[in-house]
Amino acid sequence: GHGRGDRVSTDGFRPVAPNTDDAVTVPPGYTSAVVAAWGDAVLPGAPRFDVHRQTPESAAQQFGYNNDYVGVLPLGRSSALLVCNHEYTNEEIMFPAGAYSADEQRRIALASHGMSVLRIEKGRRGGWSASRDRRTYNRRITGETPFAVDGPAAGSARLRTSADPSGRTILGTLNNCAGGTTPWGTVLSGEENVNQYFGTAGEIPADRAEAFERYGISAEGERGWHLTWDRFDVAKEPNEPNRFGWIVEIDPYDRDAAPVKHTMLGRFKHEGANVQLAHDGRAVVYMGDDERGDYLYRFVSAERMRRGNSRWARRHNQQLLTRGTLSVARLSGDGTADGEWDGTGEWVPLTSDRESFVPGWSVVDVLVDTRLAADTVAPTRMDRPEDVEPNPVNGRVYAALTNNSNRGTAYPTDEANPLASSKVRPELGAPLEDATGNRNGYVLELEPGRDRTSSRFTWRLFLVCGDPEAPETYFGGFPKDQVSPISCPDNVAFDSVGNLWVSTDGNALGSHDGIFRVPVAGRSRGKVEQFLTVPIGAEACGPLITDGDQHVWLAVQHPGEGGTFAAPTSLWPHTDRFPRPAVVVTWKR
Ligand code: FEO
Ligand code: CA
Ligand code: CA
Ligand code: CA
């Protein structure tokens, strides 16, 4: 039952030990269940999933591949909307060898990207499952769904293509990694490593060389999509890459509303976006650019959020991200003599919707080539900024900095990025070994000013991740013999009392990735405890804590990555002869 004690926010649980099992392993007394898996019906009338008979049309009606962000938006007492990103595809495990042509694979893959909205119902015995009502809200957004574009770059010459001379309608969203649910009841989602979809058999246009280089776009590409679609050929459509790499917003309560790409939030490898309201109701949006040596960003809206759920308020709030100011973070250390990696910081403005603050750059150019514009103002080069999320209880902002093997070599150390070497474990049970760079990542704690729109903040490293036996690790000052090893933080979330929850991607300590709970206040501040581990080859995404802290959500992404369809390394969730990415909910029995 769901008695008062069944709260992951306050309950003690026996931490899950590091392991390499092909399972989602939760603490004793807890259980887990799959809510939605790759291929499940999302739209009414979706064909039954058959791995040997996939088509682009069926994929566009089914739950997509590689679920990443998980949002759960309320819909009455025992119903909700599950919103997920489908970041990318693993063709080598999705498709039996020889069963599909390269062209068919690409078309199915494009339809397996994007997002899903799925109505779910709370079960009587705990857990959640897909609703039988697929008509009212269920939705698939794919690599071909029309998006509206707003903000200053909408309609600009830099967004126009031969298929869209208006520069205002973009087909599809790609590589949607993390995201955030807004205080006004919509979902934001970050288009991340979109460079991989572009290539050309021709030449990169000379006037694009610098920007393409900075964004990782090459003639070779990684997926050959330019061989199937002209729009992904950068010699034929050099502006198509400018139409990806944005924050998108969808209204899950209105399946007919066009999703939107917000140009005001800049274009880079967006991990996600999370909103904190300033005391006057303006939206403060935090974002990370997930690349070694890239930056933390912040947007402050010009207008205030309107309370309430009227159509008028919802329409107003969905315009909040069109006008305001985009800034990039510069962090200064105060020296290490105080025994802490900490200091002060500044949000350096890049552009507002009306005025660019980068000399010689237009507003549109700052928003389209945000990385290049930011490079001119000397921000702090971070170790792959992933989720950046405000804690609703203490108002501080937590940024996952996942790792950077080149820190100390290509990227000099500084107080916010202090490790030029760190300890890793080649496999579970093996002794720790020295490695160059920051291999296990950090969690950075930012303290905005009392006025959350202030350009000044203070910061400290809250977690220096790794094995607690490694001398460089730090867990908010908590005794190191009582914490779980943690490596490569990626996504963060908070429960109702403000505990930080962290999911990881790329464990460098020989164990599988997982989800961890960490109090940020009181005597247990820094007490990292592992709540679950994920199957072979998988990354843990989400996490999300819902309904009075009774449920912890998880997206199991790319189980079996590294294997093939013929030789799978994982069979999770053990329903088929191949692995299936899936969204899981866990709860106390
Ligand atoms: Fe898709 Fe930054 O992880
Ligand atoms: Ca210091
Ligand atoms: Ca991520
Ligand atoms: Ca990641």
TrEMBL record:
What domain of life does the UniProt record list for this protein's source?
Bacteria
Q: Which protein, by its recorded name, is this? A: PhoX family phosphatase
